[in-house]
Amino acid sequence: MLMAPAIGSLFLWMIVPLVMSIYFSVIHYNLMQPDQTGFVGLDNFEYFITDPSFMTATINTLILLGSVILITVVFGTLIALLTDDPFPGRNIVRILLISPFFVMPTVNALLWKNMMMNPNYGILAQVWQFFGGVPVDWLADYPLFSVIVIVSWQWLPFATLIFVTSLQSMDREQIEASRMDGANYLQQLRYLYIPHLGRSFAVVVMIEMIFLLSVFAEIYTTTGGGPGDASTNIAFLIFKQALLSFDAGVASAGALFAVVLANIAGVFLIRMVGKNLDK
Amino acid sequence: MTQLQLNMAMKVLRTILAWGVALLLFFPLGWLVLTAFKTELQAISVPPLLFFTPTLENFSIVQERSDYMHYATNSLITSVLSTILGLALAFPAAYAMAFIKGKYTKDILMWMLSTKMMPAVGALVPIYVVAQTTGLLDSLTVLTIIFTLSNLPIMVWMLYSNFKEIPGEILEASRMDGATLWQEFRLVLLPLTMGGLASTGLLCLVLSWNEAFWSLNLSSAKAGTLAFLIASYSSPEGLFWAKLSAASFMAIGPIVVFGWFSQKQLVQGLTFGAVK
Q: Potential cystine with A143: which of A24, A231, B226, B270 (Cβ 3.0-4.6 Å)?
């Protein structure tokens, strides 16, 4: 009974768009051609899937997801270990480290696009020039890589924060004892720190997956998916179909595909993490 | 003695390294703040200027050009309202799941979380059409509702894992003593779960404030939030970095400072209590 409002609203939230998507996806529905209507069967799906952008976008989505998770987990762990022992100014260092997480994606993207990666005036270009190199036009030449850098910068603090918190509950006496027994730092890392972090790895991967499958603002404000489709992910491809080509039918077909992809990821994820969280 | 010296050296090295990494990662943000106080010419000077006479003119220009307060108010209204609404929906649901466990509780919980994995763009066309036909396009109402719904799964999950820590016997005892459901909520459960409620609310606030997808697609000049305001500066109308920085600084300032103060709470909530 008490669950009814939450379940009801979530159910509507999910089922109404889903049903409408299914409906739109089998009719001809282009906002630019209101006179053309009617049932088209699976044409929209065929159009979306045979579109060469589709494969690129799927691969980009997976590359983006995988790289960002890898980067944030590896560097997050290193930074957390580095700041684990007390040192002068540790609190300030932590505040500096977590700040990017609270920055909204649009600001984050514009900041990198203009002030960091601009080939003429950007900081990176000037650093390159200082060392005698030729400035790189990051967003034009390495668009997907640039987006990965930008998104990683935003999510690294999140991973770091969680690992730092987790490390605080380490058993100090155990570490001390292992040191007495002559374990070196690498051995401590392998047998004490990493196993202790296991659960937080699961948490970080799960939450990042939820948010990173549909990265949008970072792409929208920096590369606009381009050049070509070089940095277009599934979310952005659907957006292009819907609001730039005004083809709601094809966009809906794409959306259904995204839902399927998300559910595959979801099942896999819940299997993996659910076990881990459920102790 | 040498061992001690070696340890000291290691410690100094670590401190320097930690500060180095922190400053490096914070640099883009720090640079944004500096640029906000520069003139346009200083902002694109080669080599980059680290020392200059700060100016406040960018802030007044931004306010003049695009009415910062209007967008800030929209951001504030939508994020606060959606937080309150979300808590009101999630609280009873999480209560029922934690204390009146049924056969399907677990499945419902997993299903709720799975709705969050569906990319927002999957619902874009239908929601857009619904908003258009109901005349709610570019209104605060539609943004509030959507922010609430998209955060709801995470809120239910966070509250649920928080409630689970509370022994059911306490609630039972209060019921024995004749407490009504309302008294049970207010006098027993609320004080015990303040921490969880706070972290859930905080997270929701941060997520809504920073939400960009829906505000870019469903709102424009009237109901646009700060995310929309900032995106409007990305149009290729020249290099107005100082003004862009000033606008960004004003857009992220409140929430970043807010984040600094609430980081401990946030971690507890975000990790569903799994990381202590």
A: A231
